[in-house]
Amino acid sequence: MKSESLGIIEPKFFKFEENFELESGKILKGFEIIYETYGELNKDKSNAVLICHALSGNHHAAGYSHDEQDKSGWWNELIGPNKAFDTNKYFIVSLNNLGGCHGSSGPSSIDPETSQPFGKNFPLVTVKDWVKSQDLLRLHLGLDFWHAVAGGSLGGMQALQWAIDFEGHIKKSIVIAAAPKLSAQNIAFNEVARQAIVTDPDFDQGSYHPKRGLGLARMLGHITYLSEEMMKEKFGRDLKKENYEYGFDVEFEVESYLRYQADTFSDKFNAHTYLLMTKALDYFDPSRDYENDLNKALEKTTSDFLILSFSSDWRFSPERSKEIVNALVSSKKSVSYAEIKSYQGHDGFLFPDKRYVQSIKTFLKK
Amino acid sequence: MKSESLGIIEPKFFKFEENFELESGKILKGFEIIYETYGELNKDKSNAVLICHALSGNHHAAGYSHDEQDKSGWWNELIGPNKAFDTNKYFIVSLNNLGGCHGSSGPSSIDPETSQPFGKNFPLVTVKDWVKSQDLLRLHLGLDFWHAVAGGSLGGMQALQWAIDFEGHIKKSIVIAAAPKLSAQNIAFNEVARQAIVTDPDFDQGSYHPKRGLGLARMLGHITYLSEEMMKEKFGRDLKKENYEYGFDVEFEVESYLRYQADTFSDKFNAHTYLLMTKALDYFDPSRDYENDLNKALEKTTSDFLILSFSSDWRFSPERSKEIVNALVSSKKSVSYAEIKSYQGHDGFLFPDKRYVQSIKTFLKK
Fold it and tell me: How many independent structural domains does chain A possess?
């Protein structure tokens, strides 16, 4: 375990036992949310920060867990003592979203009506649904407001939706490597991933674990998370062996890497959760309830905004982040923006670039 | 049938009955190549132009065929009377490459040793192998040289390899929307496509037609052929029905389009050919035989070069074309370059943009 680590974190549970109506109109008969906290809540309960996760993320954002004592949380580089989200100053809350597969109610949890896992019967949930459930978590924690809500990618979309849907209960919104809605190309990539899963014969034939399809989805996703330059630097055209073998075994290093990613991910992730997360991405469009006008959607927001993008991100490029910035500026909102120079592509939001960290620190403090 | 059309074209066949050694060291015991010609060969046999096709292309580049009287060849917009490749002036030859599935020897042709289709036993072929077989076609046609060899994407790579391998038999090389070799990202996309095919349970279980996997490969390929802006213009976030349905049926227009592409393509294309074409792309690297130095590879070339790229192409971006241009300039070769402004992405090379057409006409004439 490294120094400056938060050590082993015990997850907590929030059980909501009433009916929860989803955006789709369907009803969840209660739900459970797993979450972790880092740092201490101050006396006047004014230092709580909510962290929202992306497609394949979960509640375990920082420190270590009992299950994986050698692997830290997904945002451990940014959450901890003196880090971007400084646990000496803030009380950080990180949850697994509804529909996830790491402990919150989702396709892998047991449907009380059938005593079987929900599987594909778990209803589709949206970013609005998540934010609504996160607001119930806020109440459960006895908080009047979040000092900040922050996330990258799909997590950033939740931070944006928070500012719109619960403007009275959020002071600062940190929207990282996100877009105000998916483009046709973004949806297209998601659709290929979904088709890989749902056309896998194992999807519908009892085992409910389409490992092949989920692996393909992960490989494809992975390409879109990395920049072309990072792939070039990391793999180039390096061969596993000395020469071309003129066959279909792994020849290039990049093939080996992708197959490994596919294999490890598809062993542990739930395919229905993957499907559901990609649909939440596709559906995300906060302007939809406001005559398709993002300016209108942002009008009643009261929080300050920090919008961050990464120069080499081609999944949600800086141009997409600027669409959010422009709408905020048009709506005369308080907004700071920085494009972080990076070569890691969309994954840039996971790494503690100095300017990136400083932007978050300054924004949280001001 | 449209005016200015070449009408219905009868394909021709070239049968090579000797052993043909491939770059891999494997031997093809003879082969057959299907090809078409448009226009007339002049008296001194100095006006022949070879057209090379890309990944899913074939010999039927222009005019109509008996099978498809309502659908013209894949480059019909550029080949014909007064078009970029003017059939009033040039004798155009277009073939289906070895390993193809449209009439040349390939996985779908019959292996004389087993009386069954070759299927996955057809050996992997490379761009060098194709160029070598195209040179035999040249001899068969009684030509001393090609006035030009031209192609887009993988076709452009053949035009480049031609200039290197048979410098005495090519006057002009037209390399369109190509790269001097694939990047790690390019290989990664190909690998996902291949894994979609080879992990499809139907791949190895008798039917030898992994329709699902081939469809996924096509969907994915298709995304990389179109620019983000073209997808935005063509589909945006348009829905098939009025509202979100919160399910996995088609919701967005772009999903419908991709599923249709997958379905029609995978009904007619051979999966083994698809695998083999993607490997030919991965393997392509003319510098490999020249100490990984493209300048050295180009040193002995004697043809003039026209390199063309498309502004919105992100599969083989203008930057990749410029790598070829820069190596040609370093080697003091005669090279013209144009970046064609386009919004169609990689597919731009299929459309008769005015400046694009004029660049080709001028270069063929000069």
Answer: 2
Average pLDDT (A107-121) is 90
Contact pairs from chain A to chain B, CB under 8 Å: 143
pLDDT in tens, A146-199: 999 999 999 999 999 999 999 999 999 999 999 999 999 999 999 999 999 999
Among B124, B198, B255, whose Cβ lies nearest the Cβ of A246? Answer: B124
Residues of chain B positioned with their CB less than 8 A from the CB of A286: none
Among residues A242, A258, A276, the one where a domain terminates is: A276
Together in a domain, B210 and B143: no
Same domain assignment for residues A68 and A167: yes
High-pLDDT (> 70) share of chain A, %: 98
The CATH number of whichever domain residue A237 belongs to comes to: 1.10.1740.110
SS (H, E, C) A231-252: HHHHCCCCECCCCCCCCCCCCE
Domain limits at B111? 12-181+287-365
Q: Indicate whether B1 belongs to any domain.
A: no
Average pLDDT, chain A: 95
Q: What pTM value is reported for the model? A: 0.96
Residue A1 belongs to a domain: no
- Please indicate, yes or no, if residue B43 is contained in any of the structural domains: yes
In 3-state terms, chain A is what percent helix, strand and coil (to 5)? 40, 20, 40
Q: Which residue of A has its CA nearest to B23?
A: A246
What residue in A sits closest to B236 (Cα-Cα)? Answer: A184
* SS3 label, residue A213: helix
Strand spans (E) along chain A: 12-21, 27-38, 48-52, 79-80, 85-86, 91-95, 110-111, 116-117, 148-152, 172-176, 304-310, 335-340
Q: Which ipTM was obtained for this model?
A: 0.94
Last residue of one domain, picked from the residues A224, A250, A276? A276
State the CATH number of the domain containing residue A58.
Answer: 3.40.50.1820
pLDDT tens profile A222-245? 999 999 999 999 999 999 998 999
Q: Is residue B105 part of a domain?
A: yes
Mutation target among B122, B191, B199, B289 for the A interface, most CBs of A within 10 A = B191
- Judgement on whether residues B271 and B291 belong to the same structural domain of the protein: no
Please enumerate in sequence order all residues whose Cβ is within 8 A of that of A239, keeping only pairs 6 or more positions apart, or say none: A251, A252, A253
pLDDT score, position B55 = 97
Look at B185 and A223 and tell me if their CB atoms are within 8 Å.
yes
User: Chain B residues with CB inside 8 Å of A247's CB?
Assistant: 124
